[in-house]
């Protein structure tokens, strides 16, 4: 599923090469184009080097020894991770959610949900039918996956959360879908307000 390379830029050489860890729940996704394969992001934190795959955050020390493996019912279709000095932020693409993770107590909260009743109408997408508080395990398909925004990137910058939506798929008429594709061009990068959004620890 790919490799992690530790490169010494001064000496222009590869110091270490190790395989990306296999996902814990490969049966969750049956998409032949990518699916559960490959690495999904790297972040250097004070707790160690965090590498993401499809459904797990793996924490390494500087010598690439595994310190911890963090899984969660909301970790499905991880795309990119970012460290803001306190939390790891990640996009759970398979369920259209932005997650905030504490490496200290392993808690996971939904930081932004585009399918929230207060947000979904603005994107012409459906309201989420199932919870994203950790009570539903999407890795085991206790509820269907949901991908209408294709959230595939999140970063924190100067107190602002920036989210990338690969493609917004409106859940209404054909005309609404067409409008959504046009609107997607200007909405593909979203700047979210800096307030802390409610969420439940998992």
Task: Describe the protein's architecture and organization.
The chain is built from 2 helices and 13 strands; from the N terminus they run ββββββββββαββαβ. It has helices spanning 120-123, 174-187, and strands at 3-8, 13-19, 41-45, 48-52, 56-60, 66-71, 78-83, 88-92, 97-101, 108-112, 151-157, 160-165, 189-192. The strands form 4 sheets. The protein has a 4-stranded antiparallel beta sheet with strand order 3-4-5-6, with no helix packed on it. Strand 11 (151-157) and strand 12 (160-165) form a beta hairpin. The chain is globular, with a radius of gyration of 17 Å. The chain starts with a strand and ends in a 10-residue tail after the last strand.
The residue-averaged pLDDT reads 84
- Specify Rg, calculated over alpha carbons: 17 Å
Number of strands: 13
Helix content: under 10%
Taking the sheet with the most strands, its summary is: 4 strands, antiparallel
Residue runs with pLDDT of under 50 for 5 or more positions: 174-178, 182-188
Which structural class is indicated by helix and strand composition?
Answer: mainly beta
Strand content: 35-45%
The DSSP helix count reads 2
Shape: globular
Oligomeric form of this entry? single chain
Helix/strand order, N-terminal first? EEEEEEEEEEHEEHE
Ends apart, CA distance between termini: 28 Å
Sheet with the most strands: spatial strand order = 3-4-5-6
What's this, in brief?
Helix content is 9%, strand content 36%. By secondary structure, it is mainly beta.
How are the SSEs ordered, and which strands pair?
Elements: E1 3-8, E2 13-19, E3 41-45, E4 48-52, E5 56-60, E6 66-71, E7 78-83, E8 88-92, E9 97-101, E10 108-112, H1 120-123, E11 151-157, E12 160-165, H2 174-187, E13 189-192
Antiparallel strand pairs: 1-2, 3-4, 4-5, 5-6, 7-8, 8-9, 9-10, 11-12, 12-13
């Amino acid at each position: 599923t790919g490799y992690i390379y530790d490169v010494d830029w001064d000496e222009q050489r590869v110091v270490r090469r190790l395989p990306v860890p296999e996902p814990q729940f490969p049966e969750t996704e049956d998409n032949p184009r990518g699916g559960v394969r490959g690495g999904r992001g790297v972040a250097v934190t004070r707790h160690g080097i965090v590498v993401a795959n499809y459904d797990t955050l793996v924490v390494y020390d500087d010598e690439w020894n595994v310190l911890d493996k963090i899984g969660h019912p909301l970790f499905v279709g991880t795309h990119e991770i970012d460290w803001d000095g306190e939390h790891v932020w990640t996009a759970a693409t398979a369920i259209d959610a932005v997650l905030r993770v504490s490496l200290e107590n392993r808690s996971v909260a939904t930081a932004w949900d585009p399918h929230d009743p207060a947000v979904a109408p603005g994107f012409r997408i459906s309201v989420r039918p199932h919870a994203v508080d950790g009570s539903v395990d999407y890795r085991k398909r206790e509820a269907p996956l949901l991908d209408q925004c294709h959230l595939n990137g999140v970063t924190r910058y100067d107190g602002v959360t920036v989210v990338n939506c690969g493609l917004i798929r409106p859940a209404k008429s054909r005309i609404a879908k067409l409008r959504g594709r046009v609107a997607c061009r200007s909405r593909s990068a979203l700047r979210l307000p800096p307030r802390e959004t409610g969420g439940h620890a998992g």
